[in-house]
Design goal:
- The protein has 373 residues and is of the alpha/beta class.
- 26% of the residues lie in helices and 23% in strands.
- The protein is built from ten helices and 17 strands.
- Helix 2 links the parallel strand 5 and strand 6.
- Helix 3 packs parallel to helix 4, helix 4 packs parallel to helix 5 and helix 8 packs across helix 9.
- The longest helix has 15 residues.
- The chain is globular, with a radius of gyration of 20 Å.
- The protein starts with a strand and ends in a 5-residue tail after the last strand.
- The model has no long low-confidence stretch (mean pLDDT 97).
Length: 373
């Protein structure tokens, strides 16, 4: 069958024994998501996240630090290490930029401020007191508040659409002054943010990611609280600018920002931020870009390179994709405990059919094969 090697950027003919023979399938390495949330406390745990990740084709994920309690000290981290032990998915963690621990480069790979409120003084003091390392930056001027960007046609608190770009510039410059020179800007949502990142690349190593929902939707698509996402959805001009940045290879990574919640209240003020997306991410990225090789590269090689994880095409760790199938998302059928998916009811192209880990098939056509062992 045909397989795409994203490290060498070429198609191969390979022999893979499939659980069920089928025509038109292609293989590639398992995906890596460098922006995943786990909840615990009765919500998304490592068991349900493992299944959701596998169904989405992800063999590895990086957990963000805004758990309860935060990933800010070794006691909490050790609890997470134990909960994720012996999973089929490889779990890695980012540690709070405002916590007590530094990344070890093995299980904890970087700092992150994602999901944690901060102001200018707090982040400045964090840079002053920490040993420089890669920082994943959720860029937001939290002091300005607001649930959506100005111009979103719903009744809710708004923030300036330049909020994100201002924070990107502020945070990178403050970090540079204190020895930090590697930054990864998370879930970029606006045209000005892309332009700001391009400027900052003259001064530091600045990579960035986009999510499927920011490429797919705009502020005019907000119709229920599942669309309450942070950062908010931008304008059509912003969406087009993000897609253009992908086409020009200015965006490094495709990331899910999988933020599961069992059910959101209908009140925009009370509903939590986030959308459940790890199971639909590949299909959404491929549908909106119509670029299979690019989608695979930005879900496999790029995140691993940024995080310092070596990789290569390995027939014992592959996913099998049907690039031609079309299907409609039904959030109620997601394996994640998070049913808050903005793609609910949306028709997408391409789907993960099978996942092979460490030489054994663990998922095929909607069934988890490790349940049979």
């Amino acid at each position: 069958m045909r397989a795409y090697d994203p490290w060498k950027r070429r198609w191969l003919d390979v022999e893979i024994d499939l659980p069920e023979p089928s025509e038109g399938l292609v293989a590639c390495p398992t995906f890596f998501d460098m922006h995943t949330h786990v909840r615990l406390n009765g919500q998304e745990d490592y068991d349900s996240l493992e299944r959701a990740a596998i169904a989405g084709g992800f063999g590895a994920v990086l957990i963000q630090p805004n758990t309860k309690p935060e990933l800010a000290n070794m006691n909490v981290l050790n609890m997470h290490f134990q909960l994720a032990k012996d999973k089929i998915v490889d779990f890695y963690w980012s540690v709070s930029l405002f916590g007590e621990v530094e990344p070890d480069g093995e299980r904890t790979l970087c700092y992150s401020n994602d999901g944690i409120e901060y102001d200018t003084v707090k982040i400045l003091n964090a840079f002053k007191g920490k040993k420089p390392h890669l920082v994943l930056d959720h860029s937001q001027v939290h002091e300005l508040g607001g649930l959506f960007y100005e111009g979103t046609p719903i009744e809710a608190a708004k923030r300036p659409i330049f909020n994100e770009a201002i924070s990107i510039f502020r945070n990178v410059m403050l970090g540079l002054e204190h020895g930090f020179d590697r930054f990864h800007i998370q879930h970029v949502s606006t045209k000005l943010s892309i332009e700001t990142i391009l400027h900052l690349r003259n001064y530091a190593k600045v990579s960035c990611e986009v999510t499927p929902h920011h490429l797919f939707f705009t502020m005019n698509d907000v119709k229920n609280t599942n669309f309450k996402i942070n950062p908010p959805l931008g304008t059509e001009q912003d969406r087009e600018a993000l897609l253009e940045a992908v086409e020009k290879d200015l965006v490094d990574v495709f990331a899910t920002d999988h933020a599961p919640h069992p059910e959101k209240p209908n009140d925009f003020e009370k509903a939590p931020f986030g959308t459940s997306g790890i199971e639909v991410a590949f299909s959404a990225f491929y549908t909106v870009t119509n670029r299979l090789e690019t989608t695979i590269e930005k879900l496999t090689v790029s995140p691993r390179k940024i995080l310092g994880i070596e990789g290569s095409f390995d027939l014992d760790n592959v996913i099998v994709i049907d690039p031609n199938v079309q299907w409609r998302v039904d959030a109620k059928k997601l394996h994640s405990k998070g049913k808050n998916c903005v793609f609910d009811g949306i028709k997408l192209k391409g789907r993960v059919v099978g996942v092979k880990r460490s030489g054994r098939w663990v998922y095929w056509d909607g069934e988890f094969l490790f349940d049979e062992e």
